[in-house]
Design a protein that fits this description.
The complex is a heterodimer. In chain A, 70% of the residues lie in helices and 3% in strands. Chain A is mainly α. In chain A, helix 3 runs antiparallel to helix 19, helix 4 runs antiparallel to helix 5 and helix 17 packs across helix 21. About 4% of the residues of chain A have low confidence. The mean pLDDT of chain B is 88. Classes of the chains: A mainly alpha, B mainly alpha. At the A-B interface, helix 25 of A face helix 1 of B.
């Protein structure tokens, strides 16, 4: 029997922080807001660490009933906590990275007039994300799922007076609704066929079912619909379009929500549902193909972006593609491993980018940076570590997790060398565009303006005078340093399949075993690793060549490619395509048909006409009210006579 | 035994005649008191048909209704006469054509 851990406190603590700051923050000082925000998110992190410390003594999975929620016939969904190895990893990543980013935000957002609002939202996000991670049924998970969407909307549109930020928030929210639609339908199917949304009960009902190899059935449908939900939240093809726009939010938000935690919710959900996916090979195939395509296409778009945060956004989409690739071949633990390392290095990259943007006074265009290495040495150091990590240089964290995925993709029975090949090419592209960012930002000469009349795209990021680019305050550098250390050593937990084994009770005793068809897999793995490392080095070399050594070359290549380059710069015109295909018909249809025709000509007309008609009739009828009693009596007598005549004619009472 | 009684239809004809007198009086008379009496005439016309039917069908309900009607008519007379007195005091007339303020 387990002791009562009171796990419900972990999500509720940040909620308390959000409430305190949200209701009282306006009146209190910045120091007060900071204390509350850090105290509550830190307490949540401390508690997660405390859980981790005594984790080995628990009998898993650990259940904790908190309160009744929905009871309807035989169906029930409660507020209850579910803790196993998978939740623990997510718990530590979310609270840990979340707490670090809280600290960082203190420095980054200090001069913002809505300081308290920012931290209230950030704590609210933590609450919902932890609810999502700790939920013990799909419905509670869905609450968290929607809640992080809400927090994401609020934070993308944090500078809501800026039109682009407001519409980016709306875009994120609406695109996510499309995915949620799929998720909801999947939940309905689960309720209809298994009568429960509780993880344990659903998986117990699913386990005896056979693998749907020959034909696609119920589980395939559920799997694909869940994946539709994951596509929305985790920005996969075809619903990835909101994530690049989400960079309108403050940079810590991009780091926390749109890189480290929220966008990985889809990966977590798919991994959590692994019992369903393993019995639906077609759904797995959909996951793998979508992940692979997303990884590749997002990476190619990343090459041509000039906004430092947009590059990182596409890189995030691409890395999420990797995670889905892993899940799609049944290597869920590899996906979660990459999720964890990605949270470290992508969080670090975004925070570093935030530090760079802070240094150059709000500028995000890499063409106006350059040579920042000497101005902001500490940011440069940590950013370098992150860049080398994401590019996959051994022995940094990204190398281990990415290599694990590539190996599983190649060797698993659901895998294929095609996935592997695209994965390696993507790794090369990733390395290339990340070092392109690195060289453009930190090397060469500073190309930005020295003046302090910097046209802040986002108001109030930092209002002090700018001359030279300058290093960020310590409160921002400490999280950078911690994440840098984690990016270096984070991969070591994966050595010797330790991470795999840790998660084995969750994903283990499943029909999936690594295929033995690859002979001498030890050697094979080594060769494949060498190829992917070579890809990373090659990417570095090309970036060095094009963006440091021969800076005239990129323009020439772009000219040579002509139309294709244009297409890449414009992100393959996907946004324009969606606008033409969905948005414009919707707006036109709403304006012309629904507004001009249905609303104005039918609904409004019906209301107005009936009003006019009533007034015209009453104009006539009021003449009857003469005040003359005998005329009234006459009307009554005539009416009674009419009624009696009618009754006689109808024969009432006979 | 039936032959020694007045037939039902006679009662009903009388009842209808009384009621019609009441209606006509109500419609053509201008004096409020007369109108009031016309109303009573109509009520009593109806009462007559009630008792006639009650006797014919040997049912007590009709008799009971008549008592109800008489009680209500008495109450109505009390209230109605009070109103008439009030109208006369304020307007110094009992002509209903001049009591016509209640209109649009």
């Amino acid at each position: 029997m387990n002791p009562n851990l009171n796990l419900w406190l972990i999500p509720v603590l940040p909620l308390a922080g959000a409430a305190i700051n949200g209701f009282l923050g306006k009146k209190s000082s910045r120091e007060g807001v900071t204390t509350v925000a850090l105290l509550f998110s830190g307490a949540s992190f401390a508690m997660a660490l405390w859980i981790a410390a005594q984790f080995s003594s628990l009998s898993l999975p650990y259940h904790e009933f908190v309160a009744h929620w929905i009871r309807s016939g035989s169906f029930s969904a409660d507020f209850a906590v579910y803790l196993d190895q998978l939740s623990l990893v997510m718990l530590l990543v979310v609270t840990g990275v979340g707490f670090l980013i809280h600290i960082y935000s203190v420095g980054y957002m200090w001069d913002d007039p809505s300081y308290y609002r920012f931290f209230s939202y950030l704590n609210l996000f933590m609450f919902f994300m932890l609810t999502l991670v700790l939920a013990d049924n799909y419905l509670l998970m869905f609450i968290g799922w929607e809640g992080v969407g809400l927090a994401s909307y609020l934070l993308i549109g944090f500078w809501f007076t800026k039109d682009s930020a407001a519409s980016a928030g709306k875009k994120a929210f609406i695109v996510n609704r499309i995915g949620d639609f799929g998720f909801l339908i999947a939940l309905f199917l689960l309720i209809k066929h298994f009568g429960s949304l509780n993880f344990d009960q659903v998986f117990r009902s699913v386990s005896p079912l056979g693998v749907e190899t020959a034909s696609a059935g119920l589980l395939t449908a559920i799997g694909i619909l869940l994946m539709v939900g994951a596509c929305g939240k985790s920005a996969q093809i075809p619903l990835y379009v909101w994530l690049p726009d989400a960079m309108e939010g403050p940079t810590p938000v991009s780091a926390l929500i749109h890189a480290a935690t929220m966008v990985t919710a889809g990966v977590y959900m798919v991994s959590r549902s692994h019992v369903i996916f393993e019995r639906a090979p077609m759904a797995l195939m959909v996951v793998a193909v979508l992940g692979t395509l997303t990884a590749f296409f997002a990476a190619t778009i990343g090459i041509a972006q000039t906004d430092i945060k947009k590059v990182l956004a596409y890189s995030t989409i691409s890395q999420l593609g990797y995670m889905f690739m892993a899940c799609g071949v049944g290597a869920f633990s590899a996906g979660i491993f990459h999720l964890m390392t990605h949270a470290f290095f992508k969080g670090l990259l975004f925070l570093g980018a935030g530090s760079v943007i802070h240094a150059v006074g709000g500028e995000q265009d890499m063409r106006k940076m350059g040579g920042l290495r000497s101005y902001i040495p500490l940011t440069f150091l940590t950013m370098s570590i992150a860049t080398f990590t994401i590019a996959g240089f051994p022995p940094l964290a990204g190398f281990f997790s990415k290599d694990e995925i590539l190996w599983k993709v190649f060797s698993s029975e659901h895998g294929s060398w095609i996935f592997w090949l695209i994965g390696v090419v993507t790794a090369f592209i990733t390395s290339f565009y990340m070092f392109r960012l690195w060289f453009m930002t930190f090397f060469g000469d500073y190309r930005g303006a020295q003046v302090d009349s910097h046209g802040h795209s986002s108001h109030g990021q930092d209002s002090h005078e700018h001359g030279e680019p300058h290093e960020s305050p310590v409160v921002m550098l400490v999280p950078l340093a911690i994440l840098a250390v984690l990016s270096i050593v984070g991969g070591l937990v994966g050595i010797g399949n330790r991470f795999d084994n840790f998660l084995a009770p969750v994903f283990g005793n499943t029909p999936l075993q690594p295929a033995q068809s690859v002979p001498e897999s030890g050697h094979m793995e080594l060769y494949l690793t060498m190829v992917s490392v070579a890809a990373a080095f090659l990417g570095f070399y090309f970036a060095y060549l094009l963006y440091h050594k021969r800076q005239d070359l990129p323009q020439k290549i772009a000219d040579a490619l002509g139309g294709f380059y244009e297409a890449v710069v414009h992100k393959y015109y996907i946004d324009e395509f969606y606008a033409a295909l969905f948005v414009r018909p919707l707006i036109d249809g709403s304006t012309r048909i629904l507004w001009q025709d249905v609303d104005r000509k039918i609904i409004d007309a019906a209301v107005n006409d009936s009003g006019d008609g009533a007034r015209q009739v009453s104009e006539e009828v009021r003449q009857m009210q003469s005040g003359n009693i005998r005329s009234y009596a006459g009307w009554i007598a005539a009416g009674s006579a009419a009624v009696i005549a009618f009754m006689i004619w109808m024969g009432v009472g006979r | 035994m039936v032959a020694s009684y007045v037939p039902l239809s006679y009662y009903l004809l009388l009842s209808g005649f009384l009621f019609a007198c009441g209606v006509v009086g109500f419609l053509i008379k201008r004096n409020i008191i007369t109108i009031f009496m016309s109303i009573e005439l109509m009520l009593n016309g109806v009462n007559l048909s009630f008792v006639a039917f009650a006797a014919h069908w040997h049912a007590l309900a009709g008799q009971v209704f008549v008592f109800f009607v008489m009680v209500v008519a008495a109450a109505e007379a009390a209230v109605g006469l009070a109103i008439i007195i009030a109208v006369y005091r304020t307007r110094e007339t009992l002509n209903v054509d001049q009591v016509n303020l209640l209109k649009l």
